[in-house]
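ARCHIVE CARD
CATEGORY: sequence design from structure
SOURCE FIELD: tokenized fold
FIELD CONTENT:
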């Protein structure tokens, strides 16, 4: 059985993390938040696994860095 993979919209990422849009993009620039994947010319989405890894790191009291992906 294959594991279901899901992509998240910015709105869903904001709801899951409680971060604002500006904070998410600022953290991406700093390399402390996962970057989205381009799914079409004008659309991006985040891998659920990447966002969950970031949340897990925060819950463990650790900093997440782009190299941790």
């Amino acid at each position: 059985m294959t594991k279901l993979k899901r992509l998240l919209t910015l709105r869903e990422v904001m709801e899951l993390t409680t971060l604002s849009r500006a904070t998410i993009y600022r953290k991406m620039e700093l390399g402390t938040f996962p970057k989205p994947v381009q799914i079409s010319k004008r659309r991006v989405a985040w891998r659920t696994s990447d966002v969950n890894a970031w949340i897990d790191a925060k819950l463990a009291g650790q900093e997440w860095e782009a190299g941790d992906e």
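CARD ANNOTATION: The beta strands are 7-8, 37-40, 43-47. The chain has a mean pLDDT of 92.
SHELF: design records, drawer C
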